[in-house]
Write a structure and sequence with these properties.
CATH topology of the largest domain: Alpha-lytic protease prodomain-like
Strand content: 5-15%
CATH class of the largest domain: Mainly Alpha
Number of strands: 3
Shape: elongated
Largest sheet: 3 strands, mixed
Distance between the termini: 54 Å
Number of domains: 2
Length: about 300
């Protein structure tokens, strides 16, 4: 059984493959740059879903001697590749095709063909993309867990659902723009609108790619656990009866559901070495119960280095 992220990716992949085929056929018959831009967009999205699935598979590999902390960051790497694909294939080609259409809009070979193909495929694509978006929105609603959308996006450490959600939103926006461009060019006879629609679609994809790339970059560099998880960690540590103070707690996501935690804690000086070992084991168990994503915990008994040297 696929987990939530996989369900979203498989749904998006099925939709985008079907849409891409229809768009390329419609683009060839209608000779619309906006339609071709949308076809390239769906092709890029289909490749992106394959990249995300590849990242999920590779990140699930167990740790080994060469990678003792595992391969969880693979999902972050492939999310970054997805952003580059959206930028180059989706955004770059769309902008290029639109500019070329505007420059050569008076050439005879640039005239639109039968627009009904483009309009029909675009209308059907809007319906299918809405289905895919609905799946992503339901999964995103579970991730939100009552938080605001802004806070959820800020605290998200799994790029899969967020990537699909942004892709689907950009896709729907692009479809509406392309539909408007084809209609305006058809009714006015001015191909500027078809080219302009392609440029707008491309710029929207560049914007989405930039946001996704920035998020993936932060995760690859190493992002701390969410403020909610950090608060839970501090509460567990400070509530332990033998803890006199928390000197610092350093967290970093190694994968969406895998956090490494390094603690420096002031324990009661009355503890023996054997008792201290037992207290550290107790503390680790409590921490894992409070935050299951804590897979690796390192506790260092010590003093505050900012106070003593």
């Amino acid at each position: 059984m696929a987990h939530g992220g996989e369900r979203v990716v498989f749904a998006a992949l099925a939709v985008n493959v079907a849409i891409a085929i229809g768009k390329f056929v419609a683009a060839a018959l209608s000779r619309s740059s906006a339609m071709f831009a949308e076809a390239c967009h769906s092709l890029a999205d289909s490749a992106n879903q394959l990249f995300l699935l590849l990242g999920m598979k590779k990140s699930a590999r167990p740790a080994d001697d060469e990678h003792p902390f595992g391969y969880g960051a693979e999902s972050y790497f492939w999310s970054f590749i997805v952003a580059l694909c959206i930028f180059a294939v989706g955004g770059g080609i769309s902008v290029y095709e639109g500019v070329q259409k505007i420059i050569h809009r008076h050439d005879a070979d640039q005239a639109l063909g039968n627009p009904y193909w483009a309009l029909g495929v675009l209308g059907m694509s809007i319906v299918l993309e809405s289905v895919s978006l609905g799946v992503a929105m339901r999964e995103f609603a579970e991730i939100r867990a009552g938080r605001t959308v802004r806070r959820t996006l800020k605290e998200a450490r799994d790029p899969t659902v967020v990537t699909i959600l942004f892709e689907d939103l950009a896709a729907l926006f692009g479809l509406v723009v392309a539909l408007a461009g084809v209609l305006l060019s058809w009714k006015t006879g001015n191909l500027f609108w078809d080219g302009a629609a392609s440029v707008v679609v491309g710029l929207a994809l560049v914007a989405v790619a930039s946001v996704l790339a920035g998020d993936a970059k932060g995760l690859l560099i190493g992002r701390a656990a969410s403020p909610t998880h950090q608060a839970s960690i501090e509460e567990v540590v400070r509530s332990h009866p033998d803890v006199l103070g928390l000197i610092h707690a350093r967290t970093m996501h190694l994968a969406p559901e895998e956090i490494i935690l390094a603690l420096k804690v002031r324990f009661s000086p009355e503890l023996t070495v054997r008792t201290l070992e037992a207290r550290i084991n107790e503390l680790e168990a409590r921490l894992r119960a409070a935050v299951p994503a804590l897979r690796r915990i390192y506790v260092e008994p010590g003093f505050d280095e900012h106070v003593r040297t």
